[in-house]
Write a structure and sequence with these properties.
With 225 residues, this protein is of the alpha/beta class. The protein is built from 2 helices and 25 strands. The protein has a 7-stranded parallel β-sheet with strand order 2-5-8-11-14-19-22, with no helix packed on it. It has a 7-stranded parallel β-sheet with strand order 3-6-9-12-17-20-23, with no helix packed on it.
Length: 225
């Protein structure tokens, strides 16, 4: 009975997988209770049907736009002080202990983050979104992924590096992409649709759709046909 209810809730939220029959009922009950508390917390803090874990901090909440069934797990910090709205699409999930920094320095107002529908990032994700981050639909990521959408200038030897300013080209991730754990995305990189990024890669270039990339720096390993 409880599994049937949970399955209906999953289907209603757009999840099209079937619950493994080996999953014990006790686990399902604990998940449902936890989700109820998260939803109550989200409604109280945001006025929207958002699932918020404990100790989530939202700065400049009015500049954060939530889609349906958004989940932000425990101990996350989201900085909404950005030039553009922080946009989290339907079904977005941000893993526990993740952080979004939109404006990193008072000398430059940051651009912010846009995440498409049904995209999710794992625990300890770091969004450095000063230069802008765009993530498409149906993107899944492992833990400890980081985004750095600015790069320090250093060409003038007469000045300290910290006094030479930054460049901001933004980061763009396409649709239907799988990103492994501990991947680093650097300013100016772009990953095309239907691609895979291997764990531990440092992504600093422009990669076409249907690519499997990996390494430091990341290179095309194969093409998905």
């Amino acid at each position: 009975m409880i599994k049937d209810i949970f399955q209906k809730l999953l289907n209603k939220s757009g999840k099209n997988y079937q619950i493994d029959p080996k999953i014990p009922q006790g686990l399902i009950v604990s998940i449902l209770i936890r989700r109820c508390f998260m939803l109550a917390r989200g409604i109280f803090k945001t006025g929207n049907k958002v699932f918020l874990g404990p100790n989530v901090i939202l700065y400049n909440r009015k500049n954060i736009q939530f889609g349906k069934n958004v989940t932000i797990d425990k101990n996350c910090i989201l900085d909404g002080y950005s030039e553009d709205k922080i946009t989290l699409g339907d079904g977005v999930k941000i893993g526990a202990y993740s952080s979004l920094s939109s404006t990193s320095h008072m000398s430059k107002y940051g651009k912010g983050l846009k995440m498409g529908n049904n995209s999710a990032v794992g625990q300890f994700t770091e969004f450095g979104a000063s230069g802008g981050i765009e993530i498409g639909n149906d993107v899944i990521m492992g833990s400890y992924v980081s985004f750095h959408s600015e790069n320090h200038n250093f060409d003038d030897p007469s000045k300290l590096i910290r006094e030479q300013g930054v460049t901001s080209k933004s980061i763009k991730i396409g649709n239907n992409i799988w990103v492994g754990a501990k991947v680093t995305f650097l300013d100016g990189c772009q990953v095309g649709d239907n691609s895979v990024v291997a764990a531990g890669a440092v992504v600093n270039g422009i990669y076409p759709p249907n690519s499997v990339i990996g390494g430091i720096p990341a290179k095309i390993i194969k093409t998905i046909h």
